[in-house]
Amino acid sequence: MKRGRALGLSLAVCATLACAACGGGTPEQEPASGPVTITVNGLPPATDEYNRAVFEENVKAFEARYPDYRIEAKEGFMDPQTFSAKIAGGQLEDVFYVYLTDAQNLIARRQVSDVSPYLADFPVTKDYKPGLMKVFSSDDQGDDKGKVYGLPDDNYSLGLLYNRALYKKAGLDPDKPPLTWEEVRENAKRLTALGDGVVGYGDYSKSNTGGWHFTAEIYSVGGDVAVKDATGAWKPAFNSDQGRQVLRQLKDMRWTDDTMGQRQLLEYDDLVKLMASHKLGQMIGSTGDLTNTVTRFKSTYDDFGMGPIPGGQGTLGGGSGYMFKAGLSPEQIKAGLAWLTFRKNPDRIDADNARAAAKGLPVGLPEPNVWTGDSERKQREATEKHATVPTKNFAPFAEALGRVPVKLEPPNAQQIYAVLDTAMQKVLTDENADVDALLANAEKQVGQILAAVK
Q1: How far apart (Å, rounded) are the C-alpha atoms in residues 340 and 285?
Q2: Would residue 167 count as lying in a domain?
Q3: Is 298 left (phi over 0), alpha (psi -120 to 50) or beta?
Q4: Which Pfam families does the UniProt record give (predicted)?
Q5: Would you call the peptide bond into 177 cis, given omega within 30 degrees of 0 as the criterion?
């Protein structure tokens, strides 16, 4: 669930798509005799003047560099309301935007083209983070194992977002965020003691955001929401010691410590607003939440910090990338790879950051970052050179990125999150909530949801 561009996507691909899935490989076609034209999406709307201008300039520069390729750009990203119909009607763009959580579904249904034979011609693809490339690769044990069907574009992971100004007032070191949930709890007590309506720690419990955060929090202590059994079927896994630990700590902080405030049933904007208004000390969040705190609610980056998610045994992450429609010719695939590795290339980061900084946009946040090796070095140097935000405030989060495993959402995530919202709501609104009963009831419901996953 990425808050901002989208709240998530649940693909509803039915049997009518069987004909679209038939061409999962790359057909043998005659080489194109003229310029190769491909359709791509991701063109920003006209209302987003800056980013649209950047996109259109990239197209012009690309076509100048590759005169045999033409880009036909379409507005939009991935709309869950129209995606299935576009596949069934053959209207999906040749190179299309997709959330990380949906890539494996498309591969399994053979609705995308294998681009593996052509990656060697684009060496920068070797520098993508292996974990992200795995998302776009087949996990079949047969002949398709390891084949690649797309490239990453964007990523995020959840950590601890905290108010540095309130930390200072409470006598806490703003350069040393808590690394354990026990430390979060103790810090919340000191922050709440400031009075004036300050909430020490906040969490979600409505509109699927509660289940979203529960997932991140159970990952952080080594648990899972769903796992595959020996037959490959998905089963719920949160009715566990780790699941009980998450809910019991929240219940204790809400009712024993009284550090989570009286107002509950909170959803996305609620915590971000509280953080921006200096009424919230700590929350689980991403760099996207941080940006919204500043840009939408008129705060300043100087007042905030980010650290790794407490517990550090895992965190919830996500992002996006681009995949290649099934049935593309080799020439179309090469054109698509050329486009993707041109528009997002480490050698262009310096110029892109310089332009963004001149426009007054944030430069220097630790994510997104899809690179490793020399490409990551180039990104880091360009970021330090053009930073417009206080990077040291977010250094604890950045330094932990390689240590904390990033895990994706479970299948049918939004349906599962809706069920888990109830457990989060109960422990935050009912002092007598029975954690064991809540998890057992949720386990039954989620089991039914996962039984529908094919």
Answers
A1: 29
A2: yes
A3: left
A4: SBP_bac_1
A5: no
Same domain, 36 and 62: yes
What ranges in 401-434 are assigned the alpha helix state H? Answer: 413-429
Pairing relationship of beta strands 95-99 and 315-324 according to DSSP bridges: antiparallel
Q: Tell whether 117 and 165 lie within a shared domain.
A: no
Dist. CA 101–CA 323, nearest whole Å? 13
Q: Tokens standing for 428?
A: 């935050």
Is residue 300 located within the same domain as residue 322?
no
User: 97 phi and psi, to 5 degrees?
Assistant: -75, 140
The 3-class SS string of 246-258 reads HHHHHHHHHHHCC
Domain limits for position 335: 15-148+318-344
Assess contact for 313 and 222: CB atoms under 8 A.
yes
CATH code assigned at 128: 3.40.190.10
Counted domains in the chain: 2
Task: Show pLDDT as tens, one digit a residue, over the chain (454 residues).
Answer: 555 444 333 333 333 333 333 344 444 444 456 799 999 999 999 999 999 999 999 999 999 999 999 999 999 887 777 887 887 777 899 999 998 988 988 998 899 999 999 999 999 999 999 989 999 999 866 678 889 999 999 999 999 999 999 999 999 999 999 999 999 999 999 999 999 999 999 999 999 999 999 999 999 999 999 999 999 899 999 999 999 999 999 999 999 999 999 999 999 999 999 999 999 999 999 999 999 999 889 899 999 999 999 999 999 999 999 999 999 999 999 999 999 999 999 999 999 999 999 999 999 999 989 999 999 999 999 999 999 999 999 999 999 998 999 999 998 999 999 999 999 999 999 999 999 999 999 999 999 999 998 7
Angle CA 153–298–173, to nearest 5: 85
Q: Are residues 143 and 208 part of one domain?
A: no
Q: Are 271 and 204 in contact (CB under 8 A)?
A: yes
383 within domain boundaries: no
The verdict on 168 and 248 lying in the same domain is yes
Q: Is the domain of 139 the same as that of 250?
A: no
Dist CA 59 CA 78 (whole Å):
20
- Of 329, 344, 359, the position where a domain reaches its end is 344
Same domain for 177 and 133: no
User: What is the identity of the amino acid at 399?
Assistant: E
